[in-house]
Amino acid sequence: MGEKIMEAEVLKLIKEKFGKRATDSKFECALYTRDLAPVPAILVDPMFKTMPDLVVRPENSEEVSEILRLANDRGIPVTPRAGASTVYFDTVPAKGGIVMDLNLIKGIVGLDETKMTVTVKAGTTWGELEHCLRPRGLAPLAVPSSAPAASLGGWFCMMGYGIGSLKYGSMLSQVREIEVVLPNGDIRRVTADTDPPLTWFASSEGTLGIVTLLEVGIRRERAMKHFLLHSREFDETAKVLAEIKDADVTPYNLHFTDEPCVKEMHKQGFSPDNIDAGCLLAVDFDGTEEELNKAQEMISDLVARNGKVSLLPEAAADREWEERYKLLRLKRGGPSELGGEVWLPINELAGYLSDIRKLAARYHIDMCSYGHVVTPERVCVMTMFFADETKTFAYILNLSLVKKIQDVGYRHGGYPYGVGLWNTPYLNRIFPVPQLAGMRDWKKTLDPRGIMNPGKLYKWPLMLNPFNFSIGMNLMAVLRLFVGGGARG
């Protein structure tokens, strides 16, 4: 009881110190009990305490340090949160405690055009960074597809691959140094050569400390050229995609859209050039005039010798580039969407989409897929379908299809992009055993009391262990076959 009283005193102390920047109002705290994923309470409440006891909004590293010291002393869970632009409950509490809202820790601290780096506070969004760099003729190397909402710190703590990664690499490869506040409150500067190194914190999903500052590589903003290719069959699209990503001029961005997605775009009235069938491949280059001319020649040659691929008008390609941050625009056909994001070998993409079509036919539902080529070997694929979160029973049954999507990905050498809470049943698919063991050692070293974002990343909760999860989801999928899911097909 004494420990509980002291915990309450700590929360009260933080609330009094931070004034209007701290709240324990149930109404306000309820806003932090979910991210982009609508998950029925019947699945959440029996297992997790998503309602924080306190939400606090620090303005700098020193305040983050003070909060963490107090929380660590009493073993109070702390969940960092900024853009909350994922669907895995990465930034939603699993055990209550404190949610640290980092959205006040933002702004450009320094710009070094000699080193071509910018130093940025971690709560700054990629959209804000782009806005600040553009008047100087500068740009980020790569950005997430959720750039208007995603923060720099958040993307670094995720896998950090997105638009531009094919040419310029992952977020980890672009970061020179970070400032991080460890769970005990220590403020550290971390590089690739420190102990601990940068690699510990990349993809740590807020479980090892709170990143407050990053020095990130940037580039000169150069001219761009956009192309939009159309083909009737995805097998042909896959061949073209493989040829383009291995070309002498590396694309800045390479994005595909499958036929169900194209048909839905047409239905909703924003299909490029009014295309109503087939597949699309958006190819975007940045570079010198010589490089862009070489890219133009390569694309023209590809189309000329391949009668199954056509080049859509330049205006359509330009529009798709302008819409690059609106990949969830299909949601307007909702009311809701469910889906799975899969990190897939490129050479398995056509086979994966073929099996997704079979899965969709079996369950009498439309499944749309799109994705970015993010490395020469990997593509990040999002496969989605419509659902209705207001129809709880049908919505829960539809959740079983998310596992079916991940199972298709696994058969083709893929695994989920990101872990958080809801992807913990797939841990053994995502990480080799030695890598996961090493990550758990890092957690014990930096967070022995386990206060940082507990319940995420390292081990599945009891009810989400792979055996229970698999049986439960498979049974729901069988039931889904017979009663349907209330989704628009």
Question: Low-confidence runs (pLDDT<50, min 5 residues)?
Answer: none
Q: In what order do the strands lie side by side in the largest sheet? A: 14-11-13-12-16-17-15-18
Silhouette: globular
CATH class placement of the largest domain:
Alpha Beta
Name of the CATH homologous superfamily of the largest domain: FAD-linked oxidase, cap domain/gating helix
What about the largest sheet?
A: 8 strands, antiparallel
The end-to-end span amounts to 54 Å
Overall tally of domains: 4
Over all CA atoms, what is the radius of gyration? Answer: 23 Å
Structural class by secondary-structure content = alpha+beta
Instruction: Average the pLDDT over all residues and give the rounded result.
Output: 94
Number of helices: 18
In short:
It is built from 18 helices and 18 strands. It has 489 residues and is of the alpha+beta class.
List the helices and strands and how they pair.
Elements: H1 2-18, E1 22-23, H2 26-30, H3 41-44, E2 54-56, H4 61-74, E3 78-81, E4 98-101, E5 108-112, E6 117-121, H5 126-133, E7 138-140, H6 152-157, H7 165-168, H8 171-174, E8 175-181, E9 187-190, H9 198-201, E10 210-220, E11 224-231, H10 234-245, E12 253-257, H11 259-268, E13 279-286, H12 289-304, E14 309-311, H13 314-322, E15 336-345, H14 349-362, E16 368-373, E17 378-387, H15 392-411, E18 415-416, H16 427-430, H17 433-446, H18 466-483
Parallel strand pairs: 2-4, 3-4
Antiparallel strand pairs: 1-2, 5-6, 6-10, 7-10, 8-9, 8-10, 11-13, 11-14, 12-13, 12-16, 15-17, 15-18, 16-17
Helix pairs in contact: 1-4, 14-15, 15-18
